[in-house]
Amino acid sequence: MGTTLDLTWRLLRGGGRRNLLGAALALAAVAVSTGLLLFAVTANLAFAQRARADAWRHPGKAGADPVMIEALATDHVRGEPITVVDLAALKPGAPAPPGMPRFPNPGETWTSPALARLMKDLPSGQLAARFPARAGTLGRDALIHPDELVAVVGRAPGDPAMTAGRDRLAGVENTAAPTRIARYSTGAAAFAGVYQALVAIASVLMAVPLLVFGGAAARLTVARRDRRLAALRLVGATPGQVVAITTAEAVITAAAGALAGTVLYAAAIPALTRITIAGGGWYASDLWPGLPVVAAVLAAVPVLVGASAVAGLRRVVVGPLGVARRETPPAMRAVRVLLLAAVMAAFAGASGGLTGLGRLGLVIMLVFLMLAFLAINLAGPWVVALIGRITVALARTPARLLAGRRLVDDPRSAWRTVAGVALTGFVAGFLALLGGASSGTKASDRLELSVPPERAAAVAEQVKGRLDGIDAGVAVRPPSTGGPSADAAVVTVTVRGGASAVDRARTALAGTVPGHVATTPADEERGRDQLLADLRTGALTVLVVSFLIAITSAGITGASAVLDRRQAYAMLRLAGTPLRVLDRARRQETLIPLVVMGGGSLATGLFFAAPFAVGFGASGAVTLAAFVAVGFGGIAGASALSRPLLRSVTADPAPTPD
Amino acid sequence: MSGPSPSAGPEPVLTGRGLAKRFGAAVALDGVDLAVGRTETVAIMGPSGSGKSTLLHCLAGIMRPDAGEVHLLGQRIDALGERRRSTLRRTRFGFVFQFGQLLPELPAEENVALPLMLNGTPRRDAVKAARTWFGPLGLGGMERRRPGELSGGQAQRVAIARALAPRPAVVFADEPTGALDQATGHETMRLLTEATRHNDASLVVVTHDPSVARWCDRTVQVRDGRVQQPVPGAA
Which keywords does UniProt give here (chain A) (predicted)? Predict the structure, then answer.
């Protein structure tokens, strides 16, 4: 074992500059993969942590032996939501909520740090006066994100706020009627669950190409060494020793890469905390996966790379002469494309009814999205091979012919390079249309307070009294059918004088109808807009990750292609082939499929988003333009990295079998 | 310039005079004279490190000698720039190496057609011309096969076709049978020498194998960067 390691180390160090370059490329690939893998894993953990921090606020079902009453409401200040949890103890010894040292006493308010700051900064008449006196600050266990506005208000069990019912806003779980409970909820609320499901999907979308790409990188490092290992076999190394040496080499490289990736990820955390989801960034500690996960990733990545290396080695070990036979790959069947066509046809048929189905429609849409992703991934290599055959058929120049033959020869490798951008193009196309749905269209100066119809007139009078000094018009709207508060009348207060006047009116109205908070139509729209904005943020994050994968992959694939063919390239160069022909072929074999596939998936994304399009917004156009510029620029740049490599491998005047 | 005069056939195609080349402190060539006549086949032999490959690289315009001159059909080529020498190699020379010279993703006929296309022949004509080489070299039916689907000997015959397809003046071969068994090696040398002669080209073969050198008209021994007393070929 000691000899094997020693020999491995010598081979690794003594492999020459080109092999060192290859090892460095593999290391970079593993580092990027590890960093992104950590990100994909941690995103799930971070959302789980958020779900935990959110769970206790939702009272859940009434308990059999209740010790306290919990209610949830959502107020607003400057258009931002404030989560208000009302708590009343029924017995002494009611459990302290998460993030608090004790159960709040009646008449005291505990706030999040962000809310405390805001209460200090704004005049009391705009915010602080809505709550009882501040008694303490909530710890982070109670908070979803650092900037969250949360108030926990202690009340007596008999307080009207703890007995009156609540009206709930449509679809968003930000209001809950007072409930007698024995303990705080711990399971994720449905809305947090949706986020967790979405982030799980996003992780899969990020992790699957990562694994494929990482495995390919591992195998390519082995391919590089085929001949030298075959030589080792010739001088009498046993298959076991050859496997051990190569695996050790791959594992050492991968371990270094995994470590570098972890450092990379840790360095990126401060930037990652600024990704805004559900109205706020992240606690840095939420984005650190913790030692067990890091240890598992650090152990698993080298093992996976090693296993992949062993798989790639079988060929060399079987034959000491290392004759790498290359045969015409079996043609891939058109079924792959038919599948994509079928998914698209089914979607076209179903899309008309989807928007009317509400939540079920969303689920069906997500399923279709997943299917479309899978189908694109299946159809990809087939289409790349087809593009290759067309390129070959039309080729007039040697460079075009070489590029086309490369695509036909190994469509999967070309697909790996462009897959990220192709799939991303799908997302970008999708977002381009969704981006048109702009928010902030509803009134933000009209506060609405729902009341039982028989009390409407009295409440309106009371409201007028409270609004002394605020320029506002009060009216009563009779109960309307449909909508979340179907059997309630609505007292509307139209405030003139901007956002601070609205906040003063909100403060003045606090507690007018116990348990009911005055909200504007814009507030109510906020929940839906938030979800849409979060979807867009999430998709953008996946977009950035796909770009990173695509660009790294383009660099690695390009360099490996050069390294794999360095003998043939060197010979061609010796025989007088101009470097620019080889270079043009190298460039075209990436750019041709990129143009076709990137454009094609963009169109597919646009097609799928079409039923939801409100309009082709300016932000959508910007997203698209940015996609095209960054995608093509990044990939062309990464693939240009292999140009000096091509020059160096072909500059060697005396090609040897290495 | 001492030593034997670079004598060859009546009209030398390729001549090297006083070729010298050093890599750092190591002397690879130390004043070599060599002339290759029309349709002549010359073997350059010598142990490893004798400078035989460097000689080939200098003669073929791959490398520029530190001193001395190389002439092809009366034109001096060693002083040309890399671009001109590159064009020259592509149009006037052909190359056969030990292995790894065929592009694995190209069918055999396109490997042969590639140098023609690089020289500006339209693809259709280039492939048509390439195909004519397959029958005479015993490769009938292999046109669409890819290098991975060919045996070592077949691959070398495709390489011979590729070297000869642009109708070169001189074919350079560096250990052309190095990766082949003896019988296949002999067959390859027979085809290489015959086809070269038949196409009015000269042949320069670098080898350390006397049985390969026997196929040539003449053998030049290189040792420590100098040409030893020439001995007549045994063919």
Answer: Cell membrane, Membrane, Transmembrane, Transmembrane helix
A328 contact B CB<8A: yes
What residue segments make up the domains of chain A, in order of their start? 1-56+188-323, 58-185, 330-436+530-658, 446-526
Tally C-beta pairs within 8 A across A and B: 95
Contact A653 B103 (CB under 8 A): no
The per-residue b/e assignment along B181-203, b for 16 or more CB within 10 angstroms, e otherwise, is eeebbbbbbebbbebbbebebbb
User: Across the strands, what pairs with A89?
Assistant: A68
Give CA–CA dist A501/A48, Å, rounded: 38
A77 pairs with which residues across the strands? A80
Do the Cβ atoms of B118 and A328 come within 8 Å? no
Q: What is the pLDDT of residue A359?
A: 57
Query: Distances from the Cα of A210 to the Cαs of A37, A215, A389, A593, in angstroms?
Result: 7, 8, 28, 20
Compute the nearest-CA separation of A410 from chain B (Å).
9
- Rounded to an integer, what distance in angstroms lies between the CA atom of residue A309 and that of residue A302? 10
**Distance between CA A195 and CA A230 in Å, rounded?**
52
Q: How far apart are CA A207 and CA A205, in angstroms?
A: 6
Test B123 with A657 for CB contact under 8 angstroms. no
Nearest to A376 by CA among A163, A192, A598: A598
Q: Residues A91-109: what's their mean pLDDT? A: 91
- Contact call for A576 and B98, based on CB within 8 A: no
Protein fold of A446-526: Alpha-Beta Plaits (3.30.70)
Looking at CA atoms only, how far is residue A332 from chain B in angstroms? 17
Mean pLDDT score, A120-141: 89
CA-angle at B157, arms to B153 and B158, nearest 5°: 115
The Cα–Cα gap between A602 and A624 comes to 9
Binned at pLDDT 50, 70 and 90, residue A10 comes out as: low
A139-166 confidence digits (pLDDT tens): 988 899 999 999 999 999 888 888 877 7
Integer Rg of chain A from CA:
31
Highest mean pLDDT among A102-111, A199-208, A322-331, A413-422: A102-111
Q: What is the ipTM for the molecules in this complex? A: 0.84
Confidence of residue A526 (pLDDT cuts 50, 70, 90): confident
A121 touches chain B (CB under 8 A): no
Q: List the domains of chain B with CATH numbers.
A: 39-50+87-232 (3.40.50.300)
| Chain B residues within 8 A of A574 when measuring between CB atoms | 60, 62, 89, 95
Alpha-carbon distance of A437 to A435, in angstroms, equals 5
> Span A83-106, mean pLDDT?
91
**Lowest-pLDDT range of A109-118, A360-369, A452-461, A584-593:** A360-369
Q: Are strands A150-154 and B75-76 parallel, antiparallel or unpaired?
A: unpaired
Are A575 and B100 an interchain contact pair (Cβ–Cβ within 8 Å)?
no
Please state, in angstroms and rounded to a whole number, the distance separating the CA atoms of residues B77 and B60: 9
Which secondary structure element, helix H or strand E, spans residue B34, and what is its range? strand B26-37
What's the confidence (pLDDT) of residue A120?
92
Q: How close is the nearest chain B Cα to the Cα of A331, in Å?
A: 15
Indicate the SS3 state at residue A145: coil
Model-level pTM? 0.71
